[in-house]
Amino acid sequence: MPPSSREEDLAKNLVDALESVTVEQMQKYAHRSHRFMDTYKKGLTGKQAAWASKKYRGHRVLPYSILAELEKAGL
Q1: What is the pLDDT of residue 2?
Q2: What value does the mean pLDDT take over residues 53-57?
């Protein structure tokens, strides 16, 4: 995909880029992003968010007890 400012090239690059990613990969990214947004909404820092997202990766959102668990883990 060569960089270009021509509209035809940009449209082709967009289609090529979307076709190179599977729907499953898009869903995984969306779910992971949702978990990170939930951690930030609960007031966690980046390091805490990464730890919590890894620990609770099978869950859609984090439990409300997450802050106590972070303190216990020293984060």
Answers
A1: 67
A2: 75
Q: How far apart are CA 17 and CA 9, in angstroms?
A: 12
Token pair listed for 24: 């499953």
Instruction: Using alpha carbons, list the distances in angstroms from residue 43 to 23, 49, 52, 70.
Output: 31, 9, 12, 12
| Three-state DSSP class for residue 4 | coil
Burial class from Cβ neighbours inside 10 Å (0-12, 13-18, 19+) for residue 13 reads middle
Q: What pLDDT is stored for residue 61 in this prediction?
A: 66
User: Model pTM?
Assistant: 0.58
Tokens representing 71?
Answer: 């303190």
- Which one, of 21, 1, 22, 20, lies nearest residue 12 by Cα? 1
